[in-house]
Amino acid sequence: MAFTTVLDPRAMQDIQQAIDYYDEQQPGLGEQFEDFVNECLVQLEQNPFFQIRYDDIHCFPLKKYPYMIHFLIDEHKQLITVMAVFNTAKDPKIWKERK
């Protein structure tokens, strides 16, 4: 049975910031990023059990972009809560302070 995905507002903000950044680099690239993130979220719904990195947070790396999806799993509710879509080049302290 597939899980349902919910995005925390901060994760949606992360995605929008990345879309804006990529569109500044090249028009249309932001849309490609958004499409790829959506494809990855569908993959997560089918198989969310990636390794736990810290504090029950699982991470799913985006292969085409330097980002990781940080998420929690509630197996009983069949729910994935995406907490962040974080650029791997950024200081991880930023993410930890945000939690």
* Major sheet description: 5 strands, mixed
Task: Quickly give the structural class.
Answer: alpha+beta
Which regions have little confidence, pLDDT < 50, spanning 5+ residues? none
State the strand order across the main sheet.
Answer: 1-5-4-3-2
Distance between the amino and carboxyl termini: 29 Å
Count all strands and give the number. 5
Strand content: 25-35%
C-alpha-based Rg, rounded: 13 Å
Q: Categorize the overall geometry.
A: globular
**How many separate helices?**
3
Q: Summarize the amount of helix as a percent range.
A: 40-55%
Task: Please write the string of helix (H) and strand (E) elements.
Answer: EHHEEEEH
Mean pLDDT: 91
What's a concise summary of this model?
With 99 residues, the protein is α+β, with helices and mostly antiparallel strands. The chain is built from three helices and five strands; from the N terminus they run βααββββα. The chain has helices at 9-25, 29-46, 92-98, and strands at residues 4-7, 52-54, 57-62, 67-74, 79-87.
Can you describe this structure?
By secondary structure, the protein is of the alpha+beta class. α1 packs antiparallel against α2. The longest helix is centred in the middle third of the chain and has 18 residues. The radius of gyration is 13 Å and the shape is globular.
Q: What's the SSE blueprint?
A:
Layout: E1 4-7, H1 9-25, H2 29-46, E2 52-54, E3 57-62, E4 67-74, E5 79-87, H3 92-98
Parallel strand pairs: 1-5
Antiparallel strand pairs: 2-3, 3-4, 4-5
Helix pairs in contact: 1-2
